Amino acid sequence: MVRILDQANTGGPIAAETLDLVSEETNPPVPAGKTATLQDVADRCGLSKTTVRRALHGEGRALRPATFERVRAAAAEIGYDPEVHFAARSMGLRRQGRTALNHTVAVFLPDDTLPDPYFFRMYQAICHTISQAEFDIISVLRTPQEDQARLPQNLLRGGADGVLLFHNRLRSSAILERLRAVPGFGARPVVTLVEAIPDCSSVCADDYDGGYALATHLLQLGHRRLLHFEADGYRAVEARIAGHRQACRDYGLDPDECLICAQPPGGERELLGVRLALLGALERHPDVTAIFARNDYVAPWIVDCLERWGLRVPEDLSLVGFDEVRPLLNDRRENILTTVSVPLREMGRQAAALLLDRIMGRATEDEHIVCPVSLVVRASTAPPRPGLLSH
């Protein structure tokens, strides 16, 4: 962002008190019947229109507090209403086929994701990056029972310059279709996180590489029967499984023989359902020696299930997670979970920066960013112990 500073903002030789005095002597009140303009406010303060616009339209955080307050006071004194003028300017630009910046973005996310550290870390980085750019954020939360694609009135009126989507590809596609059909939004930029969809930019983790790294690690330890315990229907999961399968092939193994997939119910958010599905899968496949958990959040649940069956990690079964958001603690309060670290805050920052670049015209085409991940080996994995497989 280009920042234009005047002497009042950079500590130049002209003091604020002098500027106030000059404005009082050389800028009389706006004549009766004349509509006050931005130039009138600038003349009254002895500042540039750019500085006055920034102070009156939510871009004044870089200004000195005294300058900010002086501009606001001058606008109120001569009857300049920035909201009225902004609305009129927006209508005029729309008639010319152009749009005025609202300095606002919308973030769509399921209401149950914010407590999840995976989504919260990205959301936190998004909020920080957007606010640093002096934009506001509209957070659009939807429960699973609500119409995910329903748009708030602010977006229907064209109040957002761009949108960030946290939903899976089906819900994101429905929201995107609705957005594109709204005249007030139309072709404005959209960025998705977690899963890419057509007709917008995206920022995702390299799930394929993460899946490949985890499977390779387990195969190197000697494991040959791997249980992939994740909810399907997500491209991220599909990419991880593809990575698992390629690792098996690279070791000269048949993926269909080496890799067993089991799906927990309810998206893995119900502990009882996870227990029943996991124990059922292990009963059907007693020769499994290692388990892929969907993420670190659910890994402690899996350990709890195994302990109820008298099985230990890693003595009886190795366990790996994905994302590095929740520790698996041993008796000494040490994190023992082998996992893949996902740069969640960097993904949020990249997504927000990508959206801002499109909004400000610094980028004109959709871009797809895949963030690298890294394997973190800890004590939840060990070579298999065939003598214990009878459990």
Structure overview:
This protein is an alpha/beta fold and 391 residues long. It is 42% helix and 13% strand. The chain has a 6-stranded parallel beta sheet, sandwiched between helices. A 4-stranded parallel beta sheet has the order 7-6-8-9, with helices on both faces. A two-stranded antiparallel ribbon has the order 10-12. Strand 3, helix 9 and strand 4 (190-193) form a beta-alpha-beta unit. The longest helix is centred in the N-terminal third of the chain and has 16 residues, at 117-132. It is elongated. The protein starts with 6 loop residues before the first helix and ends in a 15-residue tail after the last strand. Mean pLDDT is 82; it is low at 1-26.
Q: Can you give the helix content as a percent range? A: 40-55%
Count of helical segments?
15
What strand line-up does the widest sheet have?
A: 2-1-3-4-5-11
Q: How far apart, in Å, are the first and last alpha carbons?
A: 62 Å
Summing up helix and strand content along with how strands pair, one would put the structural category as: alpha/beta
How many DSSP E strands?
A: 12
Mean pLDDT across all amino acids: 82
Low-confidence stretches: 1-26
Taking the sheet with the most strands, its summary is: 6 strands, parallel
Beta-sheet strand percentage? Answer: 5-15%
- Characterize the overall form: elongated
For the CA atoms, what is the radius of gyration? Answer: 28 Å
How do the helices and strands follow one another from N- to C-terminus? HHHHHHEHEHEHEEHEHHEHEHEEHEE
Task: Provide a concise account of the structure shown.
By secondary structure, this protein is α/β, with parallel strands linked by helices. The protein is 42% helix and 13% strand.
